[in-house]
Amino acid sequence: LASVVALAPELSGGKGGVLVSFEDITALETAVEMRRDFVANVSHELRTPLTALMGFIETLRTAARDDPAARDRFLSIMEREAARMNRLVGDLLSLSRVEGEERMRPTGMVDISAVLRSVMQTLEHSAQSASVTLIREGEGGEMKVPGDCDQLTQVFTNLIENAIKYGGQGGEVRVAVSRLASEPVLRGRALRIEVTDRGEGIDPLQLPRLTERFYRVDTHRSREKGGTGLGLAIVKHIVARHRGRMRIESTPGEGSKFTIILPET
Ligand code: ADP
Fold first, then answer.
1. Could you identify the atom of ligand 1 that is nearest to the CA of residue 91?
2. Where do the Histidine kinase domain residues begin and end (predicted)?
């Protein structure tokens, strides 16, 4: 865009003139567009469960009024939809907390072994319900990195939860940690955490878009599994704030591996 400013004759020594200044507004335009998309996505995501809730309220008031069995079934669906909205709002809050600045001041040293132990304990029940076996591999003992304990807990909760959700019924999810004496990209000592499943895998063409907000390979399947489409976007931002790296590898039909590398200093 060019903004054209006519110079007043008295300022240009009576000769008059034109000053042309070019400004690059592409970045600004992209930001405005992204914000618009984001608001549209959020509205859509919230409206879906809301519409369902309103429909069921109406049915409860009319058709299902004198049918206790139908009433119970509808109330369960309403509970599920309300829980989905609750998760969505929770994820939106998490995202807005970590999205602002790309670097943060670490709040302390976090023991990744302890984080993984507690996340795996929390998710044990969902793993059992999906007949998935959670397996911890690699080095044990204390392994500390500078960071925020709650945020790192969220990273591994999201990754292991996904591995359980999309890892295939009856499968295995492996969580391995290893120490890297010298990580070439981070130029120093680092921890590598790998979450591997033997599930459906992801089409390589979809991999680059996976960490976008609200991106899902299969929207229906994600919704059915209670997903919000924000999990990996949150992971990406938290890892970046810890000066870490994330890598996704996947073979359709065989499974996926999510690798997180966190600097030790
Ligand atoms: P969601 O809440 O939908 O799970 P995420 O941001 O966590 O959102 O993940 C985005 C999409 O990436 C998912 O909808 C799913 O299609 C795909 N995905 C994530 N993890 C895996 C995995 N371990 N195996 C296969 N697909 C996965």
1. 2
2. 41-265
